[in-house]
Amino acid sequence: MIELEGVPELIDPVMVAAFEGWNDAGDAASTAVAHLDREWKGEVFAALDAEDYYDFQVNRPTLWLDDGVRKITWPTTRLSVVRVGGDKPRDLVLVRGIEPSMRWRSFCNEILGFAHELGVEMVVVLGALLGDTPHTRPVPVSGVTSDPDLARTMDLEETRYEGPTGIVGILQEACTHAGVPAVSLWAAVPHYVSQPPNPKATLALLNRLEDLIGLRIPLGELPEDARAWQVGVDQLAAEDSEVAEYVQTLEEARDTAELPEASGEAIAREFERYLRRRDIGPGQTPGGHATESGDASYLRDTSGGRARPPKPVRPETGSGTPSAGGPDGQPPADREDDGGADDGRDGDGPEDSSEDSPEN
To answer: Which of 55, 65, 128, 182 could disulfide-link to 123, CB 3.0 to 4.6 Å?
Structure first.
């Protein structure tokens, strides 16, 4: 363990974690945590020793120049803290890193050691998977837990998954066995446009996280980036008749499965979110600390300053990322958040239909 700074005394802390790699389709989950760190000016206080958990031939260190002096950045997992201001301030412990190459149990125990030492009340792990979901519809987001009591009280799915898993599933189970309440939030990313970035999926994860922990999350440019991403994918898909036809098939399947009108629960959730954002005035804007953390900015078109979507691929299954309802163990996404309109909060579509099932 490398101690970067003294561990702060925290107020009602919640730990929010995401890991690059298998559980991070479109980099949606790791970018969500990077967004929180950037918007709330997170202060890094610790990092795990890279030698213990990473194969440097898989995740290579990078060289960079600092005033002409060559320095090395090693792949690792860092922990930072942010304080969200307002009438009832609370702290978030942000865990951001790369899925480890080895010693997963020791890795999770080290994360849990920090959680216990800091008095963390709940751990929320973010993930993203590939699914048969059209990019034109709201992003399906699933909330799952292994704790039946937590599932009932927080309106979550109780996971029944069996099969291969990633570090998200292992960390959630480690939390459960250690008696720490843990939840995983999963966004479904269209498998035909799986390359990062995917600001629409990132925005959907942040919307669901906001509902879960009851904090207003500043969105910055994410809603605009999400709209620009969708318009860009629309244009690219229109250039390939096979992709366009496939997207239309996915849209019809989603629209057929959707209820004729929004449920009362969905309407109530959106109304509560609106009230929460309206009631937080200038005197309640989140505070923070100076940051050392790196920035995972979106790919941008320098002429327009907007997120640049990659070209859609023809309909095939993705390779290195769990597919929706698939190898990483989570039930099909049960809620949707739009990454596009206005506040980034509304949407126009139904639910994910997938082959397998996401993760714990």
So the answer is: 182
